[in-house]
Amino acid sequence: MDIIFYHPFFDAQDWLAGMEKRLPQAKVREWRRGDKRPADYALVWRPPHEMLANRCDLKGVFALGAGVDAILEQERQHPGTLPAGVPLMRLEDSGMAQQMQEYALACVLRYFRRFDEYQVQQQQQRWLPLVPHQQNDFTIGILGAGVLGKSVAQKLVEFGFNVRCWSRSAKQISGVQSFVGQAQQEAFLTGTRLLINLLPNTPETLGLLNQRLFAHLAPGAYLLNLARGAHLVENDLLQALEQGQMAAATLDVFANEPLPPTHPLWRHPRVTITPHIAAITLPEQAMDQIAANIVALETGQSPTGVVDIQRGY
């Protein structure tokens, strides 16, 4: 069994040794330009077109992350990047769900307890207790009810918050109000005080976080964008913040990363920025999942995390 690996900044040697430890029968190599040798499986992140194109010998392609938008965009721009009929699989959880829970909960509690406003008051040397938010008036809406969205929703329910989710297809999450499809999107947004975006990045979700959407939220709402920068129309957010429709935003992802030093989001007093770290790939857990999926494919069983190319996730 031959496995090829490509990641623009991960330490390849750690992954080669880790996969060989889990699959002793495999020969694992780092792919380099010009390498046309046969391979059964490919582990990739933003692979060059030539790495996968015309590799009809592949049995599976594994994306080294929860999102597959980058490789699907390459396929749209350069048809044939993904070999026809070869399953594409993404990481499901592999340690990312807990990280996303931690990040989302920290942000929610910061806004709910108004710590962001107290920080501003500290800088102004002002001693002024603020009227606290109440849970019955602090509805949290989550866009996306996949593995990460479901995990975040369940954690927030544990803390007693009123949580609702919106997704393309029906999902049942204990203690969470479910909204499905375009027809129910406005009802989902109405009354939502804090919005968390965990949607996959697809052509249908491009620019979804815009002025029209913000206008349906409760006045003075908060935004957490933890999915992809392409979801957010940045100028619309800045305008909504200036108008008071949005109270504040925490952004972990951006259309251009790293965020350019001159971008106005850096300087906005009501915007918190982190450098795409909400939930990172944990190599050990990721390799465990990939190895298990390879064993499943080799033994005729069904792997997990198979991507529906048409849907984009």
From TrEMBL:
It catalyses: glycolate + NADP(+) = glyoxylate + NADPH + H(+); (R)-glycerate + NAD(+) = 3-hydroxypyruvate + NADH + H(+); (R)-glycerate + NADP(+) = 3-hydroxypyruvate + NADPH + H(+). Belongs to the D-isomer specific 2-hydroxyacid dehydrogenase family. GhrA subfamily. It comes from the Bacteria. GO terms for molecular function: glyoxylate reductase (NADPH) activity; hydroxypyruvate reductase (NADH) activity; hydroxypyruvate reductase (NADPH) activity; NAD binding. The keyword Isomerase does not apply. It is found in: Cytoplasm. InterPro entries: D-isomer_DH_CS, D-isomer_DH_NAD-bd, GhrA_Enterobacterales, NAD(P)-bd_dom_sf. Keywords: Cytoplasm, NAD, NADP, Oxidoreductase, Pyruvate. Pfam families: 2-Hacid_dh_C (PF02826). Residues 106-278 form the D-isomer specific 2-hydroxyacid dehydrogenase NAD-binding domain. Its EC number is 1.1.1.79, 1.1.1.81. Catalyzes the NADPH-dependent reduction of glyoxylate and hydroxypyruvate into glycolate and glycerate, respectively. The keyword Chaperone does not apply. GO terms for cellular component: cytoplasm. This is Glyoxylate/hydroxypyruvate reductase A. The active site is at 228, 276 (proton donor). PANTHER family: 2-HACID_DH_C DOMAIN-CONTAINING PROTEIN, D-ISOMER SPECIFIC 2-HYDROXYACID DEHYDROGENASE NAD-BINDING DOMAIN-CONTAINING PROTEIN.
